[in-house]
Amino acid sequence: MEKYIISNQANCKYCYKCLRNCPVKSISFSDNISKVIDSECILCGKCIEVCPQDAKNYLFEYERLKDFFGKKFFVSIAPSFFSYFDEPFKIISYLKKNGAIISETSVGAELVSKEYEKLSGIKISTACPVVVNLVEKYYPEKIKYLSPVVSPAIAHARFLKQYFGNYPLVFIGPCIAKKRELEKEYDLVLTFEELEKFLESENIDILDFEDDFPQEPYPKLARFYPISGGILKTLGETFDQVFNIEGVKNIKDFLDRVDDIDGNYFVEMSACIGGCIEGPASRKDISQLEKRIRLSQNIKKIPEGKTIENVELDLKRKFKDKKHYYNYTEQQIQEVLFSIGKTDKSKELNCSACGYDTCREKAIAVLEKKAEKEMCITYLIDKVSTVSNMVVEETPNLILIVKDGNINYKNKAARLTFMSLSNKKLWEFLKDVEQSGFKEIAVNSKNLKFFVKRFNLPEDSGEVFILTDVTKELEQEERVKIIKKHTIEKIEEVLNKQMLLAQEIASLLGESIAETKSHFTEFKRYMEEENDYL
């Protein structure tokens, strides 16, 4: 099920935070196991970002980079490379010394922008793979608005192969979604974070290297693709208006309403607010402003060189309907809703505590085996309350709830025991009980003895009395005391008799022994009787 986003089950605490923040609810919870559903995931990385337990991460493949060393291979570096690393040009030098030819993905972006300029109508940029995933999987009816052009990374791969030969290709960028998008175009797809981990694992001190620069040709304006409005800077006057939308929620809102728009507009879309410099595998320890400044400053350090001219490549792209359609009937959905206590619309709170936006979505997820009924907090509360009430009703202890001298509740045992007593009379017996103690109550001409526990409910809701019937235990205890008393008396009587033996040893010997035997026989009988209580 999971391919790119990996779940660490040992760390998962089943808090549903990942699901609450997942914009497409592509995470399943079942049998105490949380999994990302790859076929439904748009790889935005939000679950990784919000998980407080580090139970979500993405596929790390940085160890494979070393397999390319020692032979000629191409590395396509996304333009946000210059905003991520403190010493980007020294890293380029290190990679070059190990056989890499470094080229900027911005070259492919330049080619893509030229294709965008040929379009008309309402068109959405397709540089962001998360946007494409979202449309194909959840808004397939909006595919007509996607620009039928490959992403800059794919355009760059095709450019490198056509003009430099069929060498191994490695892509390095800030985006997890590129791993899926480029798996057929590149031999290895890494994030900047993975490259950093690789350098650490190899104990590389990057300061040991001199600055070096990417291979020509160079782009003209496309190095600013990763910041807000960066794509729009590369477009000419083809469109009447251009604007950008960032963030999956904002993109979904736009897609919901795009059919109402008419005109010749180009929309730059990025799943990450701030653009690719804020990608899921980008640095979180520096601000967006600092990243933009770094990008601008480092770009200025790259010397002028040959730019791309008269490149002819097929950069067309088609999109597919990848939506997962369910075919559950309304009756099936209602049955699930009823089973979790949503017996009418008023009980469908749509509180999103379970992670789903509506109770109906949750019911469908249950049918899809992506969710459990117990994920509904109100259902759990009702369930626990029902069990609690059952325990209170069925316990052999007598339970009463009193408010202002009025007995408002008696459980089953209390109702049966005090059937002949009015609530007023019963309260007279109980009102002087301290926090705990014994109380004797006359019921049907019989004195019943109870151990009473008394405590207050919170928020001045009343008092609870828990009565344990100890009548039989106390009676048995009294009986044991009597037996012990009689036994001691008999033993004393026997001992006194023995004292007389010294005076009448001869004549009374036989009689004394016989009597002693008789008394001890009786003692034995007493001891054997009710022996469980001695």
Describe what you observe in this structure.
It is a single chain. 37% of the residues lie in helices and 16% in strands. The protein is of the alpha/beta class and 534 residues long. It folds into 3 domains: 60-301, no CATH class; 326-393, no CATH class; 395-533, Beta-Lactamase, CATH 3.30.450. It has a 5-stranded antiparallel sheet, sandwiched between helices. Strands 6-5-8-9 form a 4-stranded parallel sheet. The protein has a 3-stranded parallel sheet with strand order 7-11-10, with helices on one face. The two termini are 67 Å apart. The mean pLDDT is 90.
Topology, element by element:
Blueprint lengths: L4 E3 L9 H5 L5 E4 L2 E4 L9 H5 L5 E3 L14 E5 L3 H4 L3 H10 L2 E5 L1 H11 L6 E2 L4 H10 L13 H13 L4 E5 L4 H4 L6 E4 H10 L39 E6 L1 H10 L7 E6 L17 H14 L28 H10 L19 H9 L9 H18 L3 E6 L2 E5 L1 H6 L5 H8 L5 E8 L2 E11 L6 E7 L1 H29 L5 H24 L6
Parallel strand pairs: 5-6, 5-8, 7-11, 8-9, 10-11
Antiparallel strand pairs: 1-4, 2-3, 12-13, 12-16, 14-15, 15-16
Helix pairs in contact: 5-7, 12-13, 17-18
Q: What is the CA-atom radius of gyration, in angstroms?
A: 41 Å
- Give the DSSP E fraction (strand runs of 2 or more residues): 15-25%
The total domain count is 3
Average of per-residue pLDDT values:
90
Q: In order across it, which strands form the biggest sheet?
A: 13-12-16-15-14
Oligomeric state of the chains present here? single chain
- Largest sheet at a glance? 5 strands, antiparallel
* Annotation, overall tally of beta strands: 16
